[in-house]
Amino acid sequence: MLDPEVLKTVRRIEISLRSTINSVMAGAYHSSFKGNGMEFSEVREYVPGDDVRTIDWNVTARVGHPYVKKFVEERELTVMLVVDASSSAEFGSGREMKGQVMATISALLAFAAIRNNDKVGLLIFTDEVELFIPPAKGKRHVLRVIRELLVFEPKGKKTHMQGALDYLGGILRRKAIVVVLSDFQDKGFELAFKMLRRRHEVIAVSVVDPRELELPDVGFVELEDPETGDTLLVDTGDPEFRDAFKREAKIEGKRLQSMFQKMSIDLVRIVIAQDTKDTVAPLVEYFRRRSREVRRAG
Q1: How many CB atoms lie within 10 A of CB 139?
Q2: What is the rounded average pLDDT of the residues 144-164?
């Protein structure tokens, strides 16, 4: 049973995303991924040119002339949301923190998935695996997933992405679409991504606050690392410092992009905006572009 306040928040998220899901995500999401294989549909009479390997010999023997099996693409997918709940996700310079934005994006993907009758699962991690909800179908299940994203209180503060991905790789038996949502303020997770990529479709979603890209001129400010508690007093009134900060942020962004590109993993960068539609716009555009590519390839 959902708490009334949590339910109100979930409904607010659903309403804010409804037009995006209806107009864009439902179709773009559906056509962005191929199914997990082929499943039997029916039998029909053999016609010249059919692959003899598809002949259904039982039916053929029963009716006295050749029949072949007809297969269709199995469309059911499994979407696994892997969400970073470390303390750095609690940062936000606007009306929403990074963790809240990750929950909103997860909700968008989850609602699009159930529209397609797909399964949705959730893994929340910090420096340990905090919560795992096995993939399942239905709106009731999706509401549970979103509820946990909104109210779950993690024990850990730091980030250990490799451990979370290794854990997921060990329990996911069926091929899945794994969406990892994080600010990626961690190191040494490349091998875990590569291993996961061998069996699953992996998408990385990087959530960034504007103040992590550029600092305003507000004089002396004490910056704190939320995962370690370390603090540093800086002078944002110094233009050289602000330029260096902006330059380092660009370098880090390019490094992350290059790293995922080498692993053949798509990276979607989300910079938090004042309006939810503007925030999720890069993800919507990603699915539009991916949908076009799949159609051209198919």
Answers
A1: 12
A2: 93
Residue 14 to residue 21: CA distance in whole angstroms:
9
**DSSP string for 25-88:** IHHHHHHHS--SSEEEEEEEE--TTS-GGGB-HHHHHHHSS-EEEEEEE----EEEEEEE-SGG
Here the CATH number for the domain that contains residue 184 is: 3.40.50.410
In a domain, 9, yes or no: no
Q: How many domains does the chain have?
A: 2
What is the pTM for the complete model shown? 0.83
Residue corresponding to tokens 């002339």: 65
Share of the chain residues as helix, strand and coil, in percent rounded to the nearest 5: 50, 25, 30
Question: Do 125 and 48 fall within a single domain?
Answer: no
Considering just the CA atoms, what is the radius of gyration of the chain in Å?
A: 23
Per-residue confidence band for 24, with pLDDT thresholds at 50, 70 and 90: low
Residue 208 or residue 68, greater confidence: 208
Reported as a single tens digit per residue, the pLDDT across 62-117 is: 888 888 876 544 557 899 999 999 999 999 988 899 999 999 999 999 988 888 88
Residue with tokens 């039982």: 58
